[in-house]
Design goal:
The chain is an all-beta fold. The chain has no helices and 11 strands.
């Protein structure tokens, strides 16, 4: 079993930055990649970014490309989502998930999910 814990959400003004953390524990050797998704009220879940532990492959959703970056601390089984130039439309609950294979942008391909963390961007 793998446990995923997300942290780092909060309130920030437009143009600001936040960094989310996603820590995996348990049978982390089973994990190949982790992905970030978000869901705003009344909207469907949206892919944000994903990366394998090696960094290749990595994938970013169109709305965040160039603004968000994934980094990794493999020794701590943790991935980070650095979010820069935040916009009000980035406001959502952000989720992190771990997959035993490459799930890319398909949330159904991820095996273990953490709790969500609220990110609110004020205008």
């Amino acid at each position: 079993q793998v446990h995923v814990v997300v942290s780092g959400g909060g309130l920030v003004q437009a143009g600001g930055s936040l960094r989310l953390s996603c820590a995996a524990s348990g049978r982390t050797s089973d994990i190949y990649a982790m992905g970030w998704f978000r869901q705003a009220p009344g909207k469907e879940r949206e892919f944000v970014a994903a990366s394998s532990w090696s960094g290749t492959p990595s994938l970013y959703g169109d709305p965040v490309t160039g603004r968000f970056t994934i980094s990794r601390d493999n020794a701590k089984n943790t991935m980070f989502l650095q979010m820069n130039s935040l916009k009000p439309e980035d406001t959502a609950v952000y989720y992190c998930a771990a997959g035993e294979g490459w799930g890319g942008s398909y949330y159904t391909e991820y095996d273990y999910w953490g709790q969500g963390t609220q990110v609110t961007v004020s205008s």
